[in-house]
Amino acid sequence: MTASPAIEDLLRELAQQVLGLLVRRHREFDACEDAVQEALLAAFVQWPEKGIPDHPKGWLVTVATRRLTDAWRSDSARQNRESTVFALTPADEMRAPGPGEEAAARGDDTLTLLSLCCHPVLSPASRMALTLRAVGGLTTSQVARAFFVPDATMAQRISRAKQRIREAGIDFPLPPEEERERLPVVMHVLYLIFNEGYTASFGADLGPGDLTREAIRLTRELHGRLPGDAEVAGLLALMLLTEARRPARTGPGGILVPLAEQDRGRWRQDLIDEGTALLDRTFARGPVGPYQLQAAIAALHDEAKSSEDTDWKQILALYHLLETVWPSPVVQLNRAVALAMVRGPHAALELLETLEADARMAHHHRLHAVRAHLLTMAGDAAGARAAFETAARRTTSLLERRYLEARIEELSPGLTRRPGPARPDAPAAPCDRS
After folding, report:
1. What is each CA distance from 238 to 103, 193, 233, 427, 429, in whole angstroms?
2. Are 65 and 31 in contact (CB under 8 A)?
3. Please, which contacts does 217-223 make with residues 24 or more away whose CB atoms are closer than 8 Å?
4. Measured between alpha carbons, how far is 416 from 42 in angstroms, rounded to an integer?
5. Are 48 and 11 in contact (CB under 8 A)?
6. Alpha-carbon span 29 to 97, nearest angstrom
7. Are 243 and 234 in contact (CB under 8 A)?
8. Which of 61, 76, 254, 398 could serve as a FRET partner for 197 with CA atoms 20 to 30 Å apart?
9. What does the pLDDT look like over 79-90, one tens digit per residue?
10. What residue spans of 283-380 are helical by DSSP H?
11. How would residue 148 be classed by pLDDT, with cut points 50, 70 and 90?
C-alpha cells in the first residue's frame, strides 16, 4: 500500500524532530540516522493500512529506539551498551505522550538539533555542513556543491563533525546565552538550505520545494522564539519574497525564465505581502545585517511592475552596503549585474575582472554566465557565445545548461539580446569561508 501525501508530509515533518531527540540523547549521528530511517520505513509501510497512531512522534521515537537497541545488541563489541539505551531514556519519555504533549513538543527537537549541529567545538564550515546533512536532509553531494568543494572532502568533514559531537559530551538544554551565540550560524545554515531548495546545484529540475518549505518552517519557528531579532525577521522575509517567484521561474519545456522575462502575474502575492510587511516592521530596527539587506533587494524586485520599472540605483546601493557587511565573491557578482543596469555593461565587466583571481569563483559557471550576458549587452556576440559555452560546460544543473544552450543558439553575428543573469532571482549564496 502506498502512503498518502498527508502521511508523507507528516513523516517529513517529524523526521528531523525524532532525529534531534535521539541525537541529543545518544550523540551518535550515524547510528541514530540509521534508526530513524528504519522507523520512517516502518511507518511508511504500516500507517496506510493501520492508520496514523494517536501520537505519531512518540511512535517513531519508540520504534527508532528499539532499532537502535537491536543494532547495538547485534554488535558483540557493544553488548554491554544494550541496557544503557533505556537507562539513558527518562521514564516519562518511554510512555505514550499524553493529551497535548505531542503538539507541545513539536518543533522543539528540530531546533535542538540545529543548535547541536552548531556547537562551538565544530568549525563554522563543519557546523553548516552537518546541519545541512542532518536537519536539511541534503545529500553529501548537495552539501559539497553549497560549499564549492569536492564530494570526498565534504564526506570527510561531516564524518569528523559527527565524531567531534560524540566526543564533546554535550548537555541539553543549552543556556540561553550559548544558544544566542550560535544564532548567526543557525541562520546561515537555514539560508543555505533554502538556496539549495530554490535552485538545486545539480540535476534536471529546480530545487525540491520541500527544502524551501522546511527552511521557511524552521525560520518561522526561530522568528517565533526571537520576534524582536531584526536579522531573523530579515531572513524570513528574504525567503518569502524569493519563494514568491517560484511559479514563474520556468516556461514551456521546463526552461528557466530570467527575472526580467517572468510573468509577474504568476508571482504569489500573499508571500510578497507577508515578506514586505515583515521587512517594514523590522528594517533598521537595530544594526542592519546581510539578511535584511538581501530582503530589501528582493522587495524592490517584487514590488516593481516590470524590469524597466525596477529601482536599479537603489539595488546597486544596497549591494554596495551588503558587500561591506558581508563580503563575498557571489555578492560582488550580483553587484556587477546591478552595476550593468545602472552604468552599462563595460563598467560591470571591469568589476568581473577582479573575481578571476578568486579561486572560489574563477572556475565557477556563474562567473562565465554573467560575463556572457554582459558581453551580449555590450554587443560582443562572439565573446558572449564563448562565455556561454564555458558556463554550459561547467554547470552541473541540467536545467541551467538547457537555459545556457538556448542562449547560445539565439546568438548570431547580427543578434544583440539583453537577457537577465542565469540565476537572477536566487539569493546570493555565500562561498565557503573555511
Report:
1. 28, 13, 9, 8, 12
2. no
3. 217/13, 218/110, 218/111, 218/114, 218/135, 218/190, 218/193, 219/187, 219/190, 219/194, 221/107, 221/110, 221/111, 222/111, 222/186, 222/187, 222/190
4. 58
5. no
6. 25
7. no
8. 61
9. 555 455 545 555
10. 290-303, 312-325, 329-343, 345-353, 365-377
11. low
For residue 344, give the DSSP letter. Answer: -
- List strand residue ranges (DSSP E) for 10-130, in order: none
The secondary element (H helix, E strand) that includes residue 228 is none
- Which ranges in 75-150 belong to alpha helices (H)? 82-87, 91-94, 101-105, 108-117, 124-134, 140-147
Cell numbers given for 25:
540523547
Q: Would you mind telling me the total number of residues written for the chain in this entry?
A: 434
User: What span, in angstroms and rounded, lies between the C-alpha atoms of 430 and 146?
Assistant: 9
Burial 215-240 (b: 16+ CB within 10 A, else e): bbebbebbbeeeeebbbbbbbbbbbb
- The top-scoring range by mean pLDDT among 97-101, 153-157, 425-429 is 153-157
Given the C-alpha cell 510573468, which residue does it identify? Answer: 263
Which segment, 75-79, 203-207, 375-379, is predicted with the most confidence on average?
A: 375-379
Q: Which three cell numbers stand for residue 342?
A: 545602472
Summarize the confidence of residues 158-177 as an average pLDDT.
Answer: 72
pTM of the model as a whole: 0.75
233 pLDDT tier (thresholds 50, 70, 90): very high
- For 41, 126, 287, 339, the CA distances from 118, given in Å and listed in that order, are 28, 8, 23, 36
Check residues 42 and 214 and name the one with the higher pLDDT: 42
More confident residue, 134 or 427: 134
Strand partners, 256: 250
pLDDT for position 344: 96
Radius of gyration of the chain (CA): 23
C-alpha span between 285 and 94 (Å, rounded): 45
Residues in CB range of 94: below 8 A, 6 or more apart: 62, 86
Q: For 9-41, how does the pLDDT look when each residue is reduced to its tens digit (9 = 90+)?
A: 888 778 878 888 887 777 677 788 889 889 988
| Cα-to-chain-centroid distance, residue 204 | 18
CA distance 420 to 150: 29
Residue 313 has pLDDT above 90, yes or no: yes
- Show the cell assigned to 152: 570526498
